[in-house]
Amino acid sequence: MSRWLLTGGAGYIGSHVAVELLASGRDVVIVDDLSTGFAARIADSAAFVEGSVQDTKLLAKVMRERDIDGVVHLAAKKAVGESVERPLYYYRENVDGVLAVLAAMNEAGVNKIVYSSSAAAYGEPAVGEVAEDEPTVPTSPYGETKLIGEWMVRAQAESQRLAGSGLANVSLRYFNVAGAGSDLLGDTSVANLIPMALRATTSDKRPMIFGTDYPTPDGTCIRDYIHVVDLARSHVAAAELCERDSQGQLSELFNVGRGSGSSVREVLAMVSEVLGYDVDPQDVERRQGDPAVLVARTEKIERVLGWKAELDLRDMVQSAWSAWPHAVSLRA
């Protein structure tokens, strides 16, 4: 079976991707600098190398010595608000990271990559439900860095194709990821809605709703929430697609979502239902860069990869709540 290098495999999403890749029978080598990830999340049967994703020499060395067949590149900074406050930091971390990974792959002769992108690449689309060919006009530096990463992957693939070597590539535009695959792999993020709500309510505080005057039925933003386990399984399907392309000609882009949206108030209502009491949110001003509605159209990924999300919002909230005590202990 093939062996995949996974950058950011000690993070929230990365640890779930590692579990699913290993469950599929593939070998996994994780590279993570543990700046936001946790060693406790690293799967026991995965090899681990501590180091920076921007270290081209290290990445190329690992790829050669471990006989890597493909790369799943997740490692990146991902908070929209923080990216507005620290744009240069996000460009350095995210864009330079993609550059180093692609350079190392070229040096080591690795010709398959699954790239972690984001629905933030769409910005504020004219339609609420977006297909992959919707115009991309990001409204945050974070979204810009993810879109630039897509461009870099495609440009390098075209360059290698013209040179006769090829680079099979799949970019996955994530929508809003939530939930946990086990109690040991909960989301510790300070920026995602469900952990924000859990953190507030367990600290005798009120979760915040950023903006209540959007043109939506209840005035709050609508997003497509996807369970992290479903998301992780989409990476296995993408890796399989890359593996079937021996010539390195594949170049694909997919939305990864459930294809349906939930408003912020609806999510918080589900949190209240799961916890058994009203979380009583407080309304505050909008955040810069938040579109009113952003929901995935998923026909393409269902047709090409045969992948479809199976878990719903209740699954996300219940699993996040079950994993919450361990997530809190990781951040302590």
Description:
- With 332 residues, this protein is of the alpha/beta class.
- It has 2 domains: 3-177 and 225-256, Rossmann fold, CATH 3.40.50.720; 178-224 and 258-331, UDP-galactose 4-epimerase, domain 1.
- The chain is built from 10 helices and 15 strands.
- The strands form 4 sheets. It has a 7-stranded parallel β-sheet with strand order 3-2-1-4-5-7-12, with helices on both faces. The chain has a 4-stranded mixed β-sheet with strand order 6-15-10-13. A two-stranded parallel sheet has the order 8-11.
- Helix 1 (12-23) crosses helix 7 (228-243).
- The radius of gyration is 19 Å and the shape is globular.
- The termini are far apart.
- The mean pLDDT is 95.
Fold blueprint:
Elements lengths: L2 E5 L4 H12 L3 E6 L14 E4 L5 H10 L4 E4 L6 H6 L1 H22 L3 E7 L10 E2 L10 H23 L4 E7 L1 E3 L14 H9 L6 E3 L11 E2 L1 E3 H16 L7 E6 L5 E2 H12 L6 E3 L8 E4 L2 H6 L8 H19 L1
Helix pairs in contact: 1-7, 2-4, 4-5, 6-8, 8-10
